[in-house]
Design brief:
Largest sheet: 9 strands, mixed
Helix content: 25-40%
Structural class: alpha/beta
CATH superfamily of the largest domain: Vaccinia Virus protein VP39
CATH class of the largest domain: Alpha Beta
Number of strands: 14
Shape: globular
Length: 331
């Protein structure tokens, strides 16, 4: 049974926790399969424990990382139009994080006189609880129904609602790969009701130098974020990864129009993961894949949404065409 926050009705906050705090057999089996691939792979969802989420917040403030501020500026310019086009009363966010950009849309919905409910879905319980407290204090009439879970697995746990705008921002769709991105959009479509709207944020294809710089910041925060995934896996699978023995690597893969992020072993090492169980033998220079980040253009984003059953309505982009937002209807 999900955990419901005490005094949910009194303070207008409900939090449901759908992540098992103990070992999850399905997650462990997924991890075993991924580490048996060549090169070994770690699912990028394991970046986002509380520390990983905090590190990502720092990344969004770095000078090289244009995505967050560009998308935020774009939302600022278009939020009132989006609120008017959708007439949404409820905002549902997949992978909500700190909801920094989300507040732009919430403010627009409040100005339109429609804002009633915010539903954040995120794997970090600490972030969901913090954001819920902040937002009900900021908007006296707002209710928050937080769902602590994985949007790849827990869409069915979203509470029922009406006149919804579902948002998936930050270019996160690009982390999934061509098969899973289509599957997820179909699942999102099926979880929505006719008359609901969907807003998808996509990072756009651009100068590879700018793309690579965004994932190789001079301060080394992205490297720290990348290595943190090993600490998460250690806790999950009883592992003995030593994060400091891995170097961060990120590069542009032009044929696949995506950034790939990896961890590179700086010395020969043997890693044991007792809960799987698995022993991973790495030579110096061996790599573990931790993330892909596919980039799109207007046509790719439109076709992706149409292929999942959505009807694209509006395309928004910044003057430099660095980031795109596609608003679509669920008929």
């Amino acid at each position: 049974m999900p955990e419901i926050a005490p005094a949910a009705r009194r303070d207008r906050v409900t939090i449901e926790v759908h992540l098992d705090p103990g070992p999850d057999r399905a997650a462990l089996e997924e991890l075993r399969r991924c580490l048996a691939e060549r090169p070994p792979r770690l699912p990028s969802k394991y970046f986002y424990d509380d520390r990983g989420s905090a590190l990502f917040e720092r990344i969004t403030e770095l000078p090289e990382y244009y995505q967050t501020r560009t998308e935020a500026a774009l939302l600022t310019a278009e939020a009132d139009r989006i609120a008017a086009l959708t007439a949404a009363e409820e905002l549902v966010e997949l992978g909500s994080g700190a909801a920094t950009k989300t507040r732009i849309l919430l403010a627009a919905m409040a100005r339109a006189g429609n804002l009633r409910l915010y539903v954040p879905l995120d794997v970090s319980e600490g972030i969901v609880r913090r954001v819920a407290r902040e937002l009900v204090a900021e908007y006296p009439g707002l209710e928050v129904h937080g769902v602590v879970g994985d949007f790849l697995e827990h869409l069915e746990e979203l509470p029922a609602g009406r006149r919804r705008l579902v948002i998936f921002l930050g270019g996160t769709i690009g982390n999934l790969g061509p098969v899973r991105e289509r599957e997820l959009l179909c699942e999102i479509h099926d979880a929505m009701s006719p008359g609901d709207h969907f807003l998808l944020g996509t990072d756009l294809i651009k100068d590879p130098a700018a793309l690579e710089a965004a994932y190789n910041d001079a301060a080394g925060v992205t490297a720290e974020f990348n290595r943190n995934i090993l600490a998460v896996v250690n806790r999950l699978a009883g592992g003995d990864f030593e994060p400091e023995r891995f170097a961060h690597r990120a590069f542009w893969d032009a044929p696949m129009h995506r950034i790939e992020m990896r961890l590179v072993a700086t010395a020969p090492q043997t890693v044991r993961l007792a809960a799987i169980p698995l022993t991973l033998t790495l030579a110096e220079g061996d790599e573990i894949s931790t993330e892909i980040s596919t980039k799109y253009d207007r046509d790719l984003a439109r076709d992706l949404l149409a292929g999942a059953g959505f009807r694209p309505l509006e395309w928004f982009t910044d003057p430099g065409e660095r980031f795109g937002l596609t608003l679509a209807a669920r008929d």
